[in-house]
Write a structure and sequence with these properties.
This protein is of the alpha+beta class and 414 residues long. It has helices spanning 34-48, 53-58, 165-169, 176-190, 199-202, 219-224, 228-242, 288-302, 320-337, 348-352, 385-389, 394-399, 402-413; strands at 2-10, 13-19, 23-28, 80-88, 94-105, 108-122, 125-134, 143-148, 155-160, 192-195, 249-257, 265-272, 278-282, 308-311, 340-344, 362-367, 374-378. An eight-stranded antiparallel beta sheet has the order 2-1-4-5-6-7-8-9. It has a six-stranded mixed beta sheet with strand order 10-14-15-3-16-17, with helices on both faces. It is globular.
């Protein structure tokens, strides 16, 4: 699993890091940099899956572009950016530190450097072993030299600059230490699932599928493709949590194929308006908020254990009181299935519902008053946090802008 991400010279960030917990909540005012931080995870996910580096940013026929494209990929339109990930290893005493630097020039982006380090913890100290790294590339060269750990200066292996070294090494037979590290990091990064629910796309039929689309459009297909016993359990769980979303209770949520060839599936629900009256409807009659809620629950129930699910504006379309129900659901399911979540929100009620233990993993995006760079502050790292919290609930503090003001005050006094 991913423990932390560090971003340097990426979009609006000069330097920042976000440590991840079971539930990490990223808050901040508009244009503070929240979306830019999530875009770094999107970029990592793409290049780990062997996407062309340039296309990972500008998009292609199969992939939408990352917001801003190449023009805004670097801080103040600089020449390079760097993203680093700390991923958990094979035991509690092992982590892997993976970093990738990208050079941006005009209309192209290519690999500048890349490195994978194994970290072994021994008491208060750590032992670092470079598993692979790259030499400085020649200007304009299409290739780059990677060096693989061999107890000496590293075994040279020529690589392409339009792909990550990590994804290229996946097909090679490697020394055991390198192979284990590469597999752990690839698995961790590929476990990132960015969910951007689009209720309009969920109201159509979808084909049975084992993989949920990022817009949630094939929810019905994913549910219908589950083995019968698991399908029943998953749908029962969805129904349980969805019961509080509409004005009246949802008593059941399910999906089924609708044609003789079982190739088109639709999502359905039953709403009970009183003891004698129940209404059965398909997704075309469900509200945007209900569909977004269901999509998050489906992602939690169907993504592999160890995943990091990212949802921007998770409460979009939900009444504040229902957002609290969603928070309860994602915490319960996430804990049970060992899935981490990174969410952004502006919802006062949701923030007020966060238990005290979660406050340590609330990250706040702000803009530096001098440089304009986006910065990430973890609430638990703030000196005199008790003084801030004593001034009101987290939701109230966020709504009044007091958190950002407090952070800026701490920076000025540092």
């Amino acid at each position: 699993m991913i423990r932390e991400i560090k971003i340097q010279d990426w979009k609006s960030y000069k330097l920042a890091s976000i440590p991840f917990d079971q539930l990490t909540v990223l808050i901040g005012t508009n244009a503070s940099g929240k979306s830019n931080a999530l875009d770094a995870l999107e970029f990592l996910s793409r290049v780990s899956a062997a996407a062309d580096i340039n296309s990972a940013i500008v998009g292609d026929s199969n992939t939408v572009n990352i917001r801003g494209g190449l023009e805004w990929a670097t801080f103040e339109q600089g020449k390079t950016f760097k993203i680093t990930v700390i991923a958990s290893g094979e035991d509690e005493k092992t982590d892997y530190e993976y970093s990738i630097s990208i050079a941006v020039e005009g209309n192209s982006a290519e690999l500048e450097s890349e490195e994978l380090v194994r970290i072994k913890y021994q008491g208060q100290s750590e032992r670092r072993l470079r598993l692979f790294w790259t030499d400085d590339p020649d200007i304009g060269a299409p290739g780059i030299m990677a060096r693989l750990y061999n107890t000496k200066s590293g075994t040279k292996r020529p690589m392409r600059r339009n792909l990550s070294i990590l994804s290229q090494l996946e097909i090679y037979e490697l020394r055991e230490e390198i192979d284990v590290g590469v597999k752990h990091v690839i698995s961790s990064i590929r476990s990132i699932f960015i969910l951007d629910p689009n209720p309009a796309s969920m109201r159509t039929y979808s084909r049975p599928s084992e993989k949920l689309f990022r817009d949630g459009s094939n929810i019905a297909g994913v549910l219908s493709a589950l083995p019968k016993d698991r399908k029943e359990k998953v749908e029962a769980t969805i129904s349980k949590y969805a019961a509080k979303i509409p004005e009246k209770d949802i008593t059941r949520v399910w999906a089924e194929t609708v044609d003789r060839h079982h190739v088109d599936a639709m999502l359905y629900c039953t709403e009970r308006w009183n003891e004698k009256s129940a209404l059965e409807m398909d997704a075309r009659g469900m509200s945007d908020g209900t569909l977004r809620f269901i999509s998050v629950i489906v992602a939690l129930l169907t993504q592999p254990e160890g995943s990091l699910i990212v949802v921007e504006e998770i409460d979009n379309g939900l009444h504040p009181s229902r957002a609290v129900d969603l928070l309860s659901a994602i915490r319960e399911i996430g804990t049970e299935r060992k899935i981490d979540l990174l969410i952004t929100t502006h919802n006062v009620a949701l923030l007020d519902a966060l238990p005290p233990g979660v406050l340590r993993s609330v990250a706040v995006a702000t803009r530096n008053i001098t440089t304009g760079a986006s910065e990430i502050t973890i609430l638990n790292d703030l000196p005199h946090l008790a003084r801030l919290v004593a001034d009101g609930s987290l939701g109230q503090l966020a709504a009044q802008g007091k958190i950002e003001s407090f952070i800026k005050e701490q920076d000025e006094n540092a």
